[in-house]
Design a protein that fits this description.
heterodimer, A: about 110 residues, mainly alpha, Helix Hairpins, B: about 180 residues, alpha/beta, D-Maltodextrin-Binding Protein, domain 2, 6 helices, 7 strands
Chain lengths: ~110, ~180
C-alpha cells in the first residue's frame, strides 16, 4: 500500500472543492479530504510486518500508536465540523434564498 | 494476498470519491459517503489501526449521513406561526383559506415545504429573534388588516412582499434583527 494512492484521494477531494457549484457539495468534499488525510497519517505510521499495538502479553515489533491516537481525535472533530458547516448552510439558505455559490456570492450587500 | 486486497480497496476508495465529486443528486451522495466510510474503515484495519476503524464505522458511516439527511430535509422548511386564527388559514379537514392559498403558491414557487404552527405566546420581535420562525401572521384590531412579520435580512420575505403587494388587506412588517455581540 503506497501513500501515493491516499494522496490521490485528497486530490480528488480538492478537485471537487474547486469545481462544486453547490455549498452542500463542498461540505461533502471536505469530508472526503478528511478521510484521505487520516489514511495518509495511518499509512506513514504503519510498519511492514508490524503487529497491532494492543499490548497483551509479549508483543514485539508494534506499529507507531501515536498517529492512531491523533486520528481518532480527527474523526470526532471532523464530524462536529460537518455539523457546523451544515448549520451554516441552512442559515445561508434562509438569508439568501439559495445555496448555489454563484447566486450567494453574486448578490449585492 | 493482503497486499492485493489493500490495493483493491484503495482503488475502490478513489472511485467512490470521484463518484461523490461528479454526482448531482444530494441524497445519492449521502449513500455514497456512507459507503466511503465503510471502505475507509476496512483500509484502517489494513493499516493495523482497529481502534480508529471502530470510531470511523460508528461516526463516519452512521452519524455523518444522519446529520446530512436531517439538515438537507430541514433546509427547505418555511415555518409560519399563525396568531390571527380567524379564517385567514382554515384548519378543516384540509387546510384552506385566503392566506393559505397565498402561502401555498409562494411555497410551490420556491420549492419549500410549509410548516404551520399555532399557540406560541410572546411579542413578535422577541419571537422572530429567538425562535427559528420565518413568518408570523397577526391581525390589526383597529383596521382589520392582516400583518405579516418577518426578518428584514431574509430574501424569501422580500419575494413574498412583492407577491402580496396588490392585496389591500395584507401588509408586511420587516423586523430588524438585534445586533448582538455573540
Amino acid at each position: 500500500m503506497s501513500p501515493i494512492l491516499t494522496i490521490i484521494v485528497i486530490l480528488v477531494g480538492l478537485y471537487g472543492l474547486a469545481t462544486s457549484k453547490n455549498i452542500i457539495k463542498s461540505v461533502f468534499c471536505v469530508t472526503i479530504i478528511e478521510s484521505g488525510l487520516i489514511l495518509l497519517f495511518l499509512n506513514l505510521g504503519n510498519l511492514e510486518g508490524g503487529s497491532i499495538p494492543i499490548l497483551s502479553g509479549l508483543v514485539e515489533n508494534i506499529v507507531d500508536p501515536i498517529p492512531q491516537a491523533l486520528m481518532i481525535t480527527t474523526i470526532v472533530i471532523g464530524s462536529t465540523i460537518t455539523a457546523l458547516a451544515l448549520m451554516l448552510c441552512i442559515k445561508i439558505f434562509h438569508h439568501f434564498g439559495s445555496i448555489e455559490w454563484k447566486e450567494v456570492l453574486g448578490r449585492e450587500e | 494476498m493482503t497486499e492485493i486486497v489493500s490495493y483493491a480497496l484503495q482503488i475502490i476508495l478513489i472511485v467512490i470519491a470521484f463518484a461523490v465529486v461528479v454526482h448531482k443528486r444530494n441524497f445519492t451522495i449521502i449513500i455514497l459517503i456512507a459507503t466511503f466510510g465503510l471502505v475507509a474503515a476496512s483500509l484502517y484495519i489494513m493499516n493495523k489501526a482497529p481502534d480508529v476503524a471502530i470510531a470511523e464505522v460508528a461516526i463516519g458511516s452512521a452519524i455523518i449521513p444522519l446529520i446530512y439527511v436531517i439538515s438537507i430535509s430541514r433546509q427547505r422548511e418555511f415555518i409560519v406561526l399563525d396568531r390571527a386564527q380567524d379564517g385567514f388559514i382554515e384548519y378543516g379537514h384540509e387546510l384552506s383559506g385566503e392566506g393559505y392559498e397565498i402561502l401555498a403558491e409562494f411555497v410551490k414557487l420556491y420549492d419549500l415545504s410549509l410548516n404551520i404552527c399555532v399557540d406560541i405566546q410572546g411579542k413578535e420581535k422577541s419571537l422572530i429573534n429567538e425562535l427559528n420562525v420565518d413568518l408570523i401572521i397577526a391581525r390589526d384590531l383597529q383596521t382589520g388588516a392582516y400583518i405579516l412579520y418577518g426578518k428584514s435580512s431574509s430574501v424569501l420575505l422580500s419575494k413574498l412582499t412583492t407577491m402580496v403587494k396588490d392585496k389591500p388587506n395584507i401588509r408586511v412588517v420587516k423586523i430588524k434583527e438585534d445586533k448582538r455581540n455573540d
